[in-house]
Each structure stands twice: as C-alpha cells, then as structure tokens.
Amino acid sequence: VQLQESGPGLVKPSQTLSLTCTVSGGSITTKWYYWSWIRQPPEKGLEWIGYIVYSGSSYSTSYNPSLKSRTSISVDTSNNQFTLQLSSMTPEDTAVYYCARRGGSWGQGTQVVVSS
To answer: CA angle, corner 83, sides to 29 and 76, nearest 5?
Structure first.
C-alpha cells in the first residue's frame, strides 16, 4: 500500500487546513485498517493527530485530545482517499504532515507553514 499527501504548503492564521491522502495498492474500505494523520513540528517529535477506521459497517474516528476540537478526518471512497481538516490554524501548527496506515506504510510527508 502506498500513500501520498497533497494540499497547500502555506496557510494563513485562522484558516482551515485541508489535506488529502491518496491510497494506492489497497482499499480505503479494508476493515480494521487505521488510516492516520501524524505531524512533526520543526525540531520536535512526532504528534499523532487522529485516525479513521472501517469496521465493516461504518467508519469511526479518534482524535488527539489536544487537537480534537479543531480536527476532522473523513474518507472519500470513490477516490480511495482520506482527508484531514484542521481549523483555526496558528503558527504553532507549522509542521510536516504525514498520512499513514497504522502498522504499515507512510506517505513522504508534506510541509505546511502557517504564516500571514
């Protein structure tokens, strides 16, 4: 399974970031595959943002409590993609954002800078 992130590299403060992860070589509808978003701010460690998982009957999500109020992860099954929306962006959200399948492949990451 290969994953590839896409989205804007520059976001203004207070705006909503929207990133898409395109999955190839596998299906976004595979049961119990945890499709995740992770980020790494400059000179800091990895921070888990959240995941979405399909149980066979429905999708469910889980988010980092520190980001939960601003985070939404959803899937687009027609395009085999999952997306991250992070609202009310601040410069502290500047980071490399990764999509990944838990226990499996990661995307190469995409740099997001929050600046006016």
So the answer is: 40
The answer to whether the Cα torsion of 8, 101, 86, 113 is positive or negative is negative
Question: What span, in angstroms and rounded, lies between the C-alpha atoms of 85 and 43?
Answer: 23
- Residues comprising the chain, all counted: 116
- Helix-, strand-, coil-residue percentages of the chain, each rounded to 5: 5, 50, 45
Neighbours of 46 (CB within 10 A): 11
- At 26, is the secondary structure helix, strand, or coil? coil
Chain centroid to CA 74:
9
Burial of 92 by CB count in 10 Å (0-12 exposed, 13-18 middle, 19+ buried)? exposed
pLDDT tens for each residue of 72-115 = 999 999 999 999 999 999 999 999 999 999 888 999 999 999 99
